[in-house]
């Protein structure tokens, strides 16, 4: 795919359903007793992987465009390996569910997924009674489940929604109450995404949330009772804010831009990019707020902002705020090339083990485009730069491909993105939607 410099972005768009919410709605619907109807289910390949795995587990999942009908009930032993594709969410969340079933199965995926660490989920699931074999802490995973599982108290040392979710889903099959705590946050909001606990509560799980004040801030504690039957519920999936981040960043700095994104998910654990950019002078307005299936959504209007472009102090992203921005780091690094003070990102070691080594991928591509960039073990520093078009590599990573499509809008000449088709993992039609607002 080739991208060239543009003057501005303008128009109204709607984005694919949120990937994180879609995964959870399908999985929780599958283990509920009856039919769950999901509207605006994500069109991304990752969420297709979840559906394919559920079908192999005996679940009837009928899809018509963005409408999905899940006939939930008892999962059955699959005849072959479960292929999770490129989706870390699929393999980690399903591992939690399968830990509580009395059969064995094998979970695998593509080359990228097979190289991502799985020990974080393996340790607590084994403590709960499941037997799990891995390839030195990586997939394929051989899971022999147990019912009931042993309920535990588990303290999270990292802000990982996938780890938390795996434990919570396994806890549905526990013999008592499981408690999951931490790590500390600065406010009474989960430090990691809370879609799983919201969805479980919506489907009738016996789950209670408390925040305990400590010297380090507030610690979230979730208590969930095992052996509670879930009831199917209608689910509407709002637009994916991680997909929106590319349009938010571009419209904020391209002079004369004015775009509106309709029905966008505004879960407080996911709005870090909006909060950060507004605090730095971005012109972003939110309206038409509503709440469906315990998730917040609304319309977001983004107009170009000289205050943001001329922000001289530079942005620094580190510490707690990273958990609400981890998927947005590639586009924020690209945005840094357009800000007077640039951007510094630290404490982001997790980016080394995503769909690609995202720190290395960002740095290599920005250097090809003549950007001022410095790489650290745990992040990078990007200075204000006049970008030049170049041939860049997606590294098979959808967020890298989309971030450098936006970089191409800022650059002189043409930018060619190798293997741009990988955007289909989360956002099929990304380039068509982008073209529709280019002016």
Describe what you observe in this structure.
A four-stranded mixed β-sheet has the order 2-15-17-16. A four-stranded mixed β-sheet has the order 4-5-3-14, covered by helices on one side. A four-stranded mixed β-sheet has the order 6-7-9-8. The protein has helices at 19-30, 45-56, 88-98, 111-114, 119-127, 161-171, 195-202, 241-253, 272-279, 306-309, 329-336, 358-368, 398-410, 430-437, and strands spanning 2-4, 10-14, 35-39, 60-64, 67-71, 82-83, 104-108, 131-133, 141-144, 153-155, 177-181, 207-214, 217-225, 235-236, 258-265, 283-292, 295-303, 315-317, 343-345, 373-376, 379-382, 391-393, 414-418. Helix 13 links the parallel strand 22 (391-393) and strand 23. The protein is globular. The chain is α/β, with parallel strands linked by helices. Helix 1 (19-30) runs parallel beside helix 2. The model has no long low-confidence stretch (mean pLDDT 96).
State the helix count. Answer: 14
Helix content: 25-40%
Q: Provide the structure class.
A: alpha/beta
User: Biggest β-sheet, characterized?
Assistant: 4 strands, mixed
The total of beta strands comes to 23
Biggest β-sheet: strands ordered side by side in the sheet: 2-15-17-16
Strand fraction equals 25-35%
Give the termini separation. Answer: 18 Å
What is the average of the pLDDT values? 96
Q: Which stretches are poorly predicted, pLDDT < 50 over at least 5 residues?
A: none
3D shape: globular
Radius of gyration: 21 Å
């Amino acid at each position: 795919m080739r991208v060239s410099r543009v003057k501005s972005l303008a128009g109204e768009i709607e984005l694919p359903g949120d990937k994180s919410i879609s995964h959870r709605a399908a999985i929780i619907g599958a283990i509920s007793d009856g039919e769950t109807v999901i509207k605006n289910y994500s069109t991304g390949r990752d969420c297709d992987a979840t559906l394919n795995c559920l079908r192999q587990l005996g679940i009837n999942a009928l899809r018509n465009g963005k409408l999905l009908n899940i006939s939930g009930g008892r999962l059955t032993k699959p005849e072959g390996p479960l292929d999770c594709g490129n989706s870390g969410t699929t393999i980690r969340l399903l591992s939690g569910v399968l830990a509580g079933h009395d059969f064995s199965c094998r979970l695998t995926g593509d080359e990228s997924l097979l190289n991502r660490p799985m020990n974080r989920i393996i340790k607590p699931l084994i403590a709960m009674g499941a037997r799990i074999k891995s390839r030195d802490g990586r997939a394929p995973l051989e899971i022999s489940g147990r019912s009931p599982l042993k309920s535990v108290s588990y303290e999270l040392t990292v802000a990982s929604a996938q780890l938390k979710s795996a434990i919570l889903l396994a806890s549905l099959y526990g013999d008592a109450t499981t408690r999951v705590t931490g790590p500390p946050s600065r406010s009474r909001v989960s430090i990691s995404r809370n879609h799983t606990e919201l969805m479980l509560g919506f489907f009738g799980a016996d789950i209670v949330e408390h925040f305990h004040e400590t010297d380090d801030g507030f610690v979230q504690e979730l208590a969930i009772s095992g052996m509670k039957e879930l009831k199917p519920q209608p689910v509407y999936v709002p637009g994916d804010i991680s997909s929106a981040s590319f349009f938010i960043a571009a419209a904020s700095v391209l002079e004369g831009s004015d775009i509106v994104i309709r029905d966008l998910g505004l879960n407080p654990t996911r709005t870090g990019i909006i909060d950060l950019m507004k605090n730095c002078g971005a012109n972003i307005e939110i309206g038409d707020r509503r709440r469906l299936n315990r998730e917040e959504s609304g319309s977001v209007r983004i107009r170009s902002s000289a205050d943001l472009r001329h922000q001289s102090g530079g942005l620094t992203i580190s510490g707690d705020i990273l958990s609400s921005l981890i998927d947005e780091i590639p586009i924020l690094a690209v945005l840094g090339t357009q800000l007077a003070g640039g951007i510094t990102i630290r404490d982001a070691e997790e980016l080394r083990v995503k769909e690609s080594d995202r720190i290395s991928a960002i740095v290599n591509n920005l250097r090809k485009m003549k950007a001022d960039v410095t790489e650290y073990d745990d992040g990078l520093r990007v200075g204000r730069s006049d970008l030049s078009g170049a041939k860049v590599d997606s590294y098979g990573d959808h967020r890298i491909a989309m971030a450098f499509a936006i970089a191409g809008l800022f650059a002189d000449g043409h930018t060619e993105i190798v293997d741009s088709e990988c955007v289909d993992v989360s956002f099929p039609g990304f380039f068509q939607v982008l073209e529709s607002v280019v002016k």
